[in-house]
Each structure stands twice: as structure tokens, then as C-alpha cells.
């Protein structure tokens, strides 16, 4: 999770960064302690290790400040690339330290391996648990050694999905260690944007960038207007954001996506279109389906959708009651 200013406490949270380096180095080692190499199934050490996750600001700090020093035998990096999801500028390096200042050059992460970001709408504007206004820390995409970087901003995506919580520990498992019992939905809420489709495609590009030197595709930023702290999204005629990584959910919309800053979260509000508006936009189901397929093909062409996920979107559109 994100580390804001920390008081010296019982544990030194900065040690987590050392553990990350050691775990990555272990996976590459040809030792029996390596669970991959010592396994009777694979018996091979990892050739590449990627640091990936929605980790508050911890992973971005690691990439910005520690990655250049985290090496194996003083030469090869422990991590070969990073995919950082939902975060702002780097956090705290240890207990008792403050976050990097916003104007610290390390907030614009230039590291020695390929790095990609996937940001949601809830990350861009700040507020709640993400006060760092990620749009302020944009910098031009680059393919130069030591500055290999891409930032992807997913139009319409909420800060988190309830749907993907289905892979979290179930209530029974949580109770085993006195955790708070929770119930998670197993089906996606109507209109909720499955941004993990974009994440999977981006991860595939990152692997090719690391292994073969093929740079990941570029994408336009989400359009913003105004200045910090009052910056906001530029909206289209349906009230949805312009720019960013596009999908059928915003290019062939059936909902309006808005955002509200609340204590502890940036809440995504999904408002379905009225039956009258749906009939105006899509006189027949065939018209709607054809537009979705066209948008899906553009998403694949732009590099932000894998074929298996394209099929899922099209099947969903085929079953949708549009127009009502």
C-alpha cells in the first residue's frame, strides 16, 4: 500500500524494498532455494522478472530511486521491467521520511529498463486515497536507453472494479486469520469498464519490449482542462472523457461515467442511458453490434486488446439489450 509520511515505528517499512530486490534475484538464481530452479517440474531459473502491481506509490519509488542500484553481481538488474498500475508520484523510502517532493526529478521516473503505466480516471485527478494527481507527472514517451517509458490512461475506467474482487480471499479464508469477512460480486456491474483487458495487452507489449526490444505502442493522454487542484476532464456530448486509451465502452457508449471525490476513495458513478437515448443512438441491435465490432477492431489495431478479450466484448454486445 501507499506509504505517506511515516513516524519511526516498530517495523522499518523501507525494508520491503530490499525484500523485493532479493526475491527477484532469487528467482533468477540457479540455486535450490529458488522455487523455480529447485522445482522438479520446471528446473529452470527465471530469465526475466517484471515488477508489476497497483501498490500505492511504493513500486514507483522503487523504480525511480532504487532500481539503478538493485543489481545481480553488480551488473545485471534484478528487475527487467515494470508495469505500474494506479499510482501517482513516488512515496516514502523509509520510516521517518517524507514523500519525494512533487518537483523532485525522480517523480518523472527514468529507469534503466522498460517501464509502462496504466492509469484509471480515479488516478488522474487525485482526491481520496490518491491525492497525487497523476496527470501532473506526465512526461513524453521515450524509447531512449534509460528512459524507456509509456503512460496509458484508460478512458472511463474507475479506480477499482468490484468485479475483480472475486479473486480476493473469500469470507471463510479471511475468518481463519481473524480478517474482516467480505462478500464480493462474481459478475460485472452493468457498464463497469473491464480495464484488465488493457492491462493484459500492455503486459504482453512489455514482455516483447524486454525480450526483443520491440517498443510498446503509444497512446494519447486523457484530455484535461484547468489547473491543479481544480483540473478536470474534457467531456464529449455524452458526458464521457475524451482522449486516452479508447474502448467500445466510451466510443459506443450505453452509460455516462462520472467521478466524485469522497473521503478515502474516488468513486466512479455509472449512469445508464435512457431507453429513448439508446434508440436514438442505435436504431437497431445490428447497428449497435456493428459499431462495437468496429471499435473492438480499432482497439486491437492500436495494441490495447488481445484477441481472446475481443471475443468476450463482442459476445457481451451480442447479448446486450441495446436498444431496449
Account of the protein in words:
There is one protein chain. This protein has 324 residues and is an alpha/beta fold. It has a domain of 210 residues. It is 28% helix and 13% strand. It contains 9 helices and 10 strands. The strands form 4 sheets. A 4-stranded parallel β-sheet has the order 1-4-5-6, with helices on both faces. A hairpin with a 2-residue loop joins β9 and β10. α8 packs antiparallel against α9. The chain is globular and about 65 Å long. The termini are far apart.
How would you summarize what this structure contains?
This protein has 324 residues and is α/β, with parallel strands linked by helices.
What is the H-and-E element order?
HEHEEEEHEHHEEHEEHHH
SSE-based structural type: alpha/beta
Q: State mean pLDDT (0 to 100 scale).
A: 84
State the helical fraction.
25-40%
How much beta, percentage-wise? 5-15%
General form: globular
Main beta sheet strand tally, sense and closure: 4 strands, parallel
Q: Number of helical segments? A: 9
* Rg, alpha carbons: 21 Å
Poorly predicted sequence stretches spanning 5 or more consecutive residues: 1-8
Key attributes of the depicted protein:
disordered N terminus; 324 residues; four-stranded parallel beta sheet; alpha/beta
What are the SSEs and their pairings?
Elements: H1 15-28, E1 50-53, H2 58-66, E2 71-72, E3 76-77, E4 81-85, E5 115-119, H3 121-124, E6 149-153, H4 171-176, H5 196-212, E7 224-225, E8 232-233, H6 248-251, E9 255-262, E10 265-272, H7 275-281, H8 285-302, H9 307-319
Parallel strand pairs: 1-4, 4-5, 5-6
Antiparallel strand pairs: 2-3, 7-8, 9-10
